[in-house]
């Protein structure tokens, strides 16, 4: 029992439940199942991107261009829709474009050995710039989008919108990918100890490249979902969202130093932020305080994580332990 | 000899043509906008052309930089000075940066006025505002009130909590609310002009205030996000989203019924009025000074305040009847 409580995921889940309980004392309707489903739906993009960011961070990289990729893919999806391209083409194109944008990041990191934070800081601006170029700074508005384009993320399946199901599907895929495949293990190996990974035959650069491509693909998917959900596409959509995504990862116990993290952690980290984001407006807190409160919650969560959930290195040589 | 004759004839002809040209030369009024390719300003140009047609002897030069920078506008104004235009009406990218070059223009006898986004008083003869804070505040609450004859609860969804324009409009709206005793303002929420945050705030407003009848969003991002949230929550018909928006961005939401109507200044009228005033000042039919009354043709008259500023009219109201027509323009 105490062991279970010690795990990051359990602690974070507990924190989320306490948080929801506290919110319920001020605004009881918040815990209504329909509202919690709404909160989950609202958090779905963050969940998907937190998982995408997780694999990148696991390999000791970071993808700051994730929100810009989202925005560019979303704009392209919207423009294709306006041009009359059918839905079955738009979604694959958006994801393929995201993969290409991710591949640009990955190649720069892999082949030119540029630090990922610098690469993605640059591409972040470039991708936003490209949106400006292709759109001419103009907005694409809801009456220009086709009804199918807008309604797909809202379509109801078994009581949940497709947007929520996308997040659930991505969580399931990542649980298998990260936990059960060679690629998944190599993400951890590359970030945990790159030299050791090389000796086991893992190509560090290629693994990081794969992580960036994966991240870009999901950003492409979310790009479409985002634009369709809010029924508007313009240069600045999701600006600053990359920081939410990184925050969700960090709250979820994914180490910025690489090699440590879990799908459950990223999911809960995203949910934690999602609950805060949705609760602050309804519990009547002054907007001047909201940002400070979000930030404090993030730091508190990380502090708890850092002290409670610090995983110790595995002891290899028992006899040497006391000497050192 | 014949050559000399030819020369004489052609010189005489040229002189005659030149003199003729000078007599019939139309007044050239330059409309300098923040940047080319913006629908709003293309509509301003339309209004200016309408005024030119009405005045008869006016030629409009519609110009501006390709990007919304003050440097770009300075170059454009310098070029206009070289062309010796009669008047410049400018919507400035920077209140102060353009003052020196516009002063230079005025020294060369060019009439300079600013419209929409103003220039500091030293750089222009007068500034034409599309509307005034008071008129906008009044319009905001009136649009909500018109949709709820029995009164009820309303909420405001603004941009950021520190946005100067929005805060001034909301203050003015609160003052005008005295005329509507049966309308209660529940809350002013802030969506920071981001689609996702505005959407979330609108959802929260609907949850918190089950009797909410209208959301007033005096920001183009907020009004769209609120309309989308109302549609998604299936509250169309129960909650009316109104405020300030652009027809091209709001047409869909007006037709869905989420918004029964909204307002924004009419750029066509603005271009028309600015041209009328520029023509009047350039022809020395009036002098821009505090208290002066300037004629704006079909838009009526404007009285200048102590800063030589004037407000054109109420924000223009758009609903299902006219939104499509304007959606094509801006």
Give a summary of the structure in a few sentences.
The complex is a heterodimer of chains A (324) and B (330). Chain A is mostly helical and 324 residues long. Chain A has 15 helices and two strands.
Verbal overview:
The complex is a heterodimer of chains A (324) and B (330). With 324 residues, chain A is mainly α. Chain A has one domain (47-308). Chain A has 15 helices and two strands. Chain A has helices spanning 2-6, 8-26, 33-58, 66-82, 87-111, 116-135, 147-151, 162-180, 182-192, 194-199, 204-230, 241-251, 263-282, 287-308, 318-321; strands at residues 156-157, 160-161. In chain A, helix 3 packs across helix 12. The mean pLDDT of chain A is 89. Chain B is α/β, with parallel strands linked by helices. Chain B has two domains: 8-130 and 267-313, 3-Layer(aba) Sandwich (Rossmann fold); 133-264, Rossmann fold (3-Layer(aba) Sandwich). Helices cover 45% and strands 20% of the residues of chain B. Chain B has helices at residues 2-24, 39-55, 70-82, 99-107, 133-146, 164-176, 195-208, 220-232, 247-256, 267-282, 323-327, and strands at 27-32, 58-63, 87-90, 111-115, 126-129, 152-158, 183-190, 212-217, 240-243, 262-264, 293-295, 301-303, 309-311, 316-318. A six-stranded parallel sheet of chain B has the order 2-1-3-4-5-13, sandwiched between helices. In chain B, a hairpin with a 5-residue loop joins strand 11 and strand 12 (301-303). In chain B, helix 5 (133-146) crosses helix 6. The longest helix of chain B has 23 residues, at 2-24. Mean pLDDT of chain B is 89; it is low at 16-23. The A-B interface holds A 27, 29, 35, 38, 42, 136-139, 141-144, 154, 226, 230-232, 236-239, 241, 277-278, 281-282, 284, 287-288 and B 37-39, 161, 187, 189-190, 194-196, 199-201, 203-205, 207-208, 224-225, 228, 232, 248-253, 255, 327.
